[in-house]
Write a structure and sequence with these properties.
- By secondary structure, the chain is mostly helical.
- Among the domains are: about 90 residues, 2-Layer Sandwich (Alpha-Beta Plaits), CATH 3.30.70; about 80 residues, Alpha-Beta Plaits (2-Layer Sandwich).
- A two-stranded antiparallel sheet has the order 1-2. Strands 3-4 form a two-stranded antiparallel ribbon. A two-stranded antiparallel sheet has the order 5-8.
- The longest helix is centred in the N-terminal third of the chain and has 31 residues.
- The relative contact order is 0.12.
């Protein structure tokens, strides 16, 4: 039954809170960018640090307490008191779904048992973390949202806007371009990113995010009520929440509140599932007798939590099986010499458990050098950052990726530490390098090497040119102790295709 909600003062207050939180999220998203200096003074990663699912899985997988996730304890405490309010009042993905649902026709189909899927995901993710496998980033709503925006929506938005203004500048009369240039400059300072970026897996991230929104055609908040593992965790924390909806059961002569509930929180017998209620307050504005309210207190009737022990036992076993099987994958055996992690990242065994696959480090990378991994380190490393020097290089005077990492997977380094941090080693392919392969002079790699004492130097040798005359050319070589693996030499190598100098991974 579709019933159009009537708005109460409390309901309007919730909408205002949602709007403010969404605007704050979008502002922080834009501030997660290079703006002319190597410092981001805002808590741009606060959303992930508030996330108890990311906090719990990172701590369990890394086997250490991560102080950066202290804000998550605040959300846990508030959820125990007020219930699943975060989903209905703060979550930016939930707010965007509410906005989207106003423009799509929902079939309101009820699929038996599908609401338990979020508990399946939650169980598998937590048990996987116990065994050292970080899976939350695949299904975490914040990771899905930020990756989709950062890897696809934002680059496309920038591309279209720049294409429009470039077309005017190149083709329109000068008078018109003089009018549009100040507008473009203003957009560059506010809404547009620092530079046009390109990302691997951009289409995949877009499809995943789009799928979350298209599920609204089945029912409102389909993702939130049925699939979201963070929602499942907050639901379980809400089982004994003090803030309760009264009355706890629909009236005999009226069931409007059940028909309007976007979370389908009312059971068939009329009793409310408290853990499913996200305090949207739609039921208050729509109550014809005006008796619906929310008050602190214990429930009059304790509604049993529907997924039973057997349900969790079998998914605990499944959650344990996934990390065990991953230990015998081919990715665990073969060397990955070109898998270069950002500066500040520890060795794989410490990095992968902490990384929540949020994409913040890749979004903020000045040279667009950090890209999401696909299967370079197995499925457990998917969406984690890797340096692709042929696309971009690690800027010598930049420490932004460590500043925005919410979990400590990338350590925050000061500039001096970063400039000494070794992420790889440059090696020459003498079959391609011009001074070796064709006896031609080329000093591009040495010219761009940023270390204070050049890590690339030359030795002069005599060779014969085409006329059989002896000439002296410089052949480059790398001083291993000075090279940090930033990748600029590989990036600027003038050869087409693979560079004649490649950065390989250094074991830490």
């Amino acid at each position: 039954m579709n019933i159009k909600p009537a708005y109460s003062i409390k309901h309007l207050l919730r909408l205002l809170c949602q709007g403010v939180c969404l605007v704050v999220f979008l502002i922080l998203f834009r501030l997660t960018d290079y703006r002319g200096k190597d410092e981001i003074g805002w808590a741009v990663n606060v959303l992930f640090r508030l996330d108890p699912l990311s906090a719990l899985t990172s701590i369990l997988a890394a086997k250490e307490y991560i102080i950066l996730f202290i804000p998550a304890l605040i959300l846990v405490a508030l959820t125990i008191i007020f219930g699943r309010f975060f989903c209905g009042w703060i979550c930016p993905l939930g707010t965007l779904l509410d906005l989207f649902s106003k423009y799509v026709r929902c079939s309101n189909k009820k699929i038996a048992g599908v609401r338990y899927v979020k508990y399946i995901f939650l169980t598998v993710i937590i048990v996987g973390a116990v065994f050292g496998l970080q899976l939350s980033g695949f299904l975490n709503p914040f990771s899905i949202l930020v990756r989709g925006l950062a890897f696809s929506i934002d680059p496309v938005f920038n591309y279209i806007i720049c294409l429009f203004f470039d077309s005017i500048y190149l083709n329109a009369p000068e008078a018109l371009s003089n009018l549009t240039e100040p507008v473009y400059s203003s957009l560059k300072q506010t809404l547009l990113p620092f530079r046009q970026s390109f990302f691997a897996l951009s289409f995949l991230c877009f499809i995943i995010l789009l799928s979350v929104f298209l599920l609204e055609k089945i029912s409102r908040r389909f993702w939130c009520r049925n699939l979201c593992p963070l929602g499942g965790m907050l639901a379980m924390l809400s089982l004994s929440a003090l803030l309760r909806r009264l009355p706890e059961k629909t009236c005999k002569e009226c069931s409007d509140c059940a028909g309007i509930c976007p979370m389908d929180a009312f059971r068939d017998d009329g009793w409310i599932r408290g853990e499913e209620c996200h305090l949207c307050l739609d039921c208050i504005g729509n109550c014809p007798s005006k008796i619906s309210s929310f008050k602190l207190g214990k429930p009059k009737k304790k509604i049993s939590f529907e997924p039973g022990k057997r349900f969790f036992i079998k998914w605990v076993i499944a959650g344990a099986a996934i990390p065990i099987v991953s230990k015998v994958s081919l990715a665990q055996k073969i060397e990955r010499p070109f898998l270069i992690r950002p500066p500040g990242a520890k060795e794989e065994g410490s990095f992968l458990p902490k990384c929540v696959r949020c994409g913040e480090c890749m979004k903020v990378c000045v040279k667009n050098a950090l890209q999401p991994a696909l299967m370079e380190s197995g499925f457990e490393g998917m969406f984690t950052p890797r340096l692709v020097p042929r696309l971009g290089y690690c800027e010598f005077n930049c420490t932004l990726c460590g500043q925005v990492c919410p979990s400590g997977a990338i350590e925050r380094l000061d500039l001096k530490q970063k400039q000494r941090f070794v992420i790889g080693l440059a090696v020459f392919d003498k079959d391609r390098c011009l001074p070796f392969a064709k006896d031609e002079s080329c000093i591009v790699c040495e010219e761009h090497c940023p270390t204070y004492d050049k890590a690339i130097k030359f030795k002069s040798i005599k060779v014969k040119n085409k006329n059989e005359s002896e000439i002296i050319i410089k052949q480059p070589y790398v001083i291993d102790s000075l090279c940090i693996g930033c990748g600029i030499c590989e990036n600027v190598c003038p050869l087409k295709g693979n560079a004649a100098i490649r950065v390989i991974r250094q074991k830490q």
